[in-house]
Request: fold
Amino acid sequence: MPIQMTIKGLMIDPITNMPIIVLRDQSGERILPIWVGVFEANAIALQMENVETPRPMTHDLLRNILDDLQARVERIVVCDLRENTFYAEIHLDSGGRAVTVDARPSDAIALALRTRSPIFVEESVIEGASHVESQGPNDVGRLRKWLEGLGDEELGKYKM
Reply:
């Protein structure tokens, strides 16, 4: 069962120096950190901060193409977690036809922000991420404990 989530913040992992998107459910009880690349984090940060660029960025281009084709992003779903890698789907309505497109979560989230579409995460992904043991740089358990101790003002401290 997918759970609707919002972007709580975008920050740098203090250990790996990698950007992290922090998703949180509407009750504030569950969080999901997703490590992303620098370019993807910048694309998300630009949109979160309402920064307009002189030319369309990649995710703006994708939104423009969908608009011109009269397709609409209904939702994005972070749908799987395999070997510490998150998977997502973009659910589109294209002239009344449902289309599902495989995507990286960072790209799906960047597009969701630009189209004002809801973000969902499968409950099994949240459960799976909470049970991931310390395995290399993306230690979800360590990060989850650290994030739970942060206040709202400390999240979203990502510098482009």
The chain has a mean pLDDT of 88. The CA atoms of residues 32 and 127 lie 10 Å apart.
